Amino acid sequence: MTAPLFDSHMHTPLCGHATGTPREYAQAALDSGLAGICFTDHMPMPAWYDAPWRMRLDQLAQYVEDVRAVQAEFAGRLDVRLGLEADFHPGTERFVEEVLGAHPWDYVIGSIHYIGAWGFDNPEFIAEYDSRDLAGLYRDYYALAEGAAKSGLFDSIGHLDLPKKFGHRDPDGYAALHALDVIAERGLALDFNTAGWRKPVAEAYPAPDLTRAAAERGIPFVLGSDAHRPEEVGHRFTDAIKQIHDVGGRIVTYQGRVRHG
Ligand SMILES: [Zn+2]
Ligand SMILES: [Zn+2]
């Protein structure tokens, strides 16, 4: 038995690094047999934070309007939902809280893209990995993931083991398990993110062993392609479902920030 499938992680050109109109993402989802999608574009942040990679605050209303238009156009054929990929970066919580209060979001992913001032998933700054102790890097990263879970701002944690993106794998694993304990305790889900299969690491986020550890803790998964182009919608969902079901994991979606499934 297969539940209706949703792709709950995708972007729009408003973030400055995605192509294709929201309507093209929806059409791609419909063409590949999905039941629904949730747009989760990179949310506005304070002006000093990562500005070139996200919509500006004065574009937020446009984003909501664009998604609403697609929602209306595809009504009865595809369930189109309104979400955000939020960033967790200590000190910005109040700003994030205000943006999250401004519209009725269906689903909010909490992602960590920075350790301090280092955008560690940006290929431009990949050399920095050579100057870092990997175990320490992952400890710092997972401490941030715990902070995100404890903030109460988010429904899920985005691409859990993201620092592996270019192949720098966690040599230890302990910090990840501790973060999963906190994520379980706080009742969050994990963004099961198939973009990792398109990156040098060639592995989804989270890795199979972390998928198992999450499932053992009762943490559910939200499927997401992290599409930045319409062709990426629903990317490798068959493999994702297998990886999750192989370890007894559950797949859920969010609507009005309430978990379903
Ligand atoms: Zn992006
Ligand atoms: Zn992300």
Automatic annotation (TrEMBL):
Keyword Acetylation among UniProt keywords: no
Pfam families, sorted: PHP, PHP_C
Pathways per UniProt: Amino-acid biosynthesis; L-histidine biosynthesis; L-histidine from 5-phospho-alpha-D-ribose 1-diphosphate: step 8/9
Coiled coil: none
GO term, biological process aspect, one: L-histidine biosynthetic process
Name of protein: Histidinol-phosphatase
Stored InterPro entries: Histidinol_P_phosphatase_HisJ, PHP_dom, Pol/histidinol_Pase-like
Enzyme Commission (EC) number: 3.1.3.15
Swiss-Prot/TrEMBL catalytic activity: L-histidinol phosphate + H2O = L-histidinol + phosphate
Limits of the PHP domain: 7-195
Keyword annotations from UniProtKB, A to Z: Amino-acid biosynthesis, Histidine biosynthesis, Hydrolase
Keyword Hydrolase: yes
Single GO molecular function: histidinol-phosphatase activity
NCBIfam families assigned to the protein according to its UniProt record, in alphabetical order: hisJ_fam (TIGR01856), PRK07328.1 (NF005596)
GO CC annotation terms, alphabetical: cytoplasm
Top EC category: hydrolase
Protein family per UniProt: Belongs to the PHP hydrolase family. HisK subfamily.
Stored PANTHER family: HISTIDINOL PHOSPHATASE-RELATED, HISTIDINOL-PHOSPHATASE
